[in-house]
Amino acid sequence: MAQLFTKDTQAIFWNNNASAIQRMLDYDYTIKRKTPSVAGIVAPTSSNKFEKFFWGPDEVMVPLYKNTAEAKAHQPQADVLLNFASLRTAYDVTMEALEIGGFKSIMITAEGIPERLARRMNQAARDKNVIVIGPATVGGIVPGAFKIANVGGTIENIVNSKLHRAGSCGLVTRSGGLFNELSNIIAINADGIAEGVAIGGDRFVGSVFIDNLLRMQDNPEVKYMILLGEVGGTEEYKVIDAVKSGRITKPIIAWCIGTIAKYYDSGVQFGHAGASANAASETAEAKNKAMADAGIYVPATFNDLPTKIAEVYGKLKADGVIKNIPEPDMNMVPKVRRKKEFICTISDDRGDEATYAGFPISSVALPSTGKGIGDVISLLWFKKQYPKWATDFIETVIKTVADHGPAVSGAHNAKVTARAGKSVVESLVTGLLTIGPRFGGAIDGAAEHFKYADDNKLNPAEFLNHMKKLGIPIPGIGHRIKSLKNPDLRVKGLMDYAKECFPATPLLDYARTVEALTTSKKENLILNVDGTIGILMVDMWRALGYSEQEINEFIASGTLNAFFIAGRTIGFIGHVLDEKRLDMPMYRHPMDDILYDVQMADEI
Ligand code: ACO
Ligand code: LMR
Fold first, then answer.
1. Is 74 a catalytic residue?
2. Which numbered ligand comes closest to the C-alpha of 531?
């Protein structure tokens, strides 16, 4: 892989580090990326499904996941893991990600991971050909394409340091602070960087100088390289070997920080865990000399580094190796931004014509479109275009449950309310409020319990036993007036349709075996209309390719009862209008239909 990241690279960010993620998205917006560079966030303790971030003046939602496996399953294209876990969990998070696979690079920010674990982790990544950046790093950047977290600081600083578009330098440092410092120096003395990595300050880091420089050697965007090493370790010698062997041919400018160490009389460790010389060859002085001897451009002092950069860059420019870089158009991140209070993901009324899940209303509403209410429901409830067999099923359900006469609980309530002089909407809602676990609102419960029983391979007797233990009647079983002798033809109609048009009906087949047992006990314990709808909706969603988790979420949020609510609204309105049309007087229940059993209240 010659290029570390591209403009399409997306990452999974482990830990909801909102300010760092916002910086990434501000960068994306500035450089006009099409997609946010963070595709998902792993937030193990959050119960939220997404986090909102600014995208220029607007906001975008970045999904949250409980763990890396879930995030990767939903965002398979995200091949970078930004591991912002604490030093206690960073090792486990990296090892798990390597196990899951599909990551090309993993950046680890935690400092001080035990060295034994760091070595094992780095080796495991190397074995799987995964580039590790860090631990103990701010990360890296491919300007104009992808920036890790806080690299480069604020947007103002990024633009000042020419990190908003690719330059010609490949930069490798240990330190993150000095990475930013050098980016600025390179911007002033040359044309910015093409790719840069701060490999991290711990003694054992994943990718070392040579790994990054070899990649940059093979990256045509990189015309020369800058290596900022440190006292301690021998990694610079691998670079020297590569230069000597001709594996690296591009010019390298290098400097090892820590020449001051020789003025201390005992071995001194600088800020980084790895910044301490354990042998004469590990001193900054020795390494600077060895690099210079190998033909690497080494300035006389750190102060001379900018001049050296200007010199090498100037020569490459004069030789025509480096061309002028046109300044790209950039977006400006607004200074003042307001968070939105509401989110809508189903319809949009901002254009000339409002849309349902992206479809102009006329494209689904007009008869010429051939679309029906099933299409409208699939767009507005599920944000999907369902196939005809499924939209026809939805319409069949709606039409089937529209009314069941004046005597049922909800219609009765709506009628009584209308007769008390209330409006259509008031009367309607009293009817709707009657829908519940016994009447019309057993659909989600039926789906939940039958699905549970089938998923757990309970035979009908075991299922009945399980429900008995729960202490609730089986939702979707039983009817006041319908029975084996007086079959509910609505149920038959739905089942016949499903048998004919669904690809398969496994849950219905299971439910029929349960019904055989319940009706053998009592003939009105049939699979009722609620149960049939709930069970067939699960069969429908499975056939449409929904995951079990998505179906469980539909059930938990009450989606299935909504079909009854939508359908029965038609009938309730009919009953209310009937009352109005007939101008029926207020209703009073006949007293002889009430058993009065009132005792004198005891005094307490
Ligand atoms: N699961 C297990 N046993 C049941 C069930 C059930 N779903 N329904 C009734 N029974 C049993 C009762 O425990 C009772 O047993 P018992 O005689 O040993 O005491 C017997 O059958 C009769 O019970 P009732 O409540 O009198 O039955 P009823 O016919 O009055 O009730 C009702 C009908 C309310 C629908 C009931 O069957 C029930 O609660 N079912 C589950 C909820 C449901 O599916 N509702 C939707 C109905 S369809 C619609 O409203 C559009
Ligand atoms: C209905 O659809 O309302 C019925 O199944 C309930 C009933 O009591 O008939």
1. no
2. 1
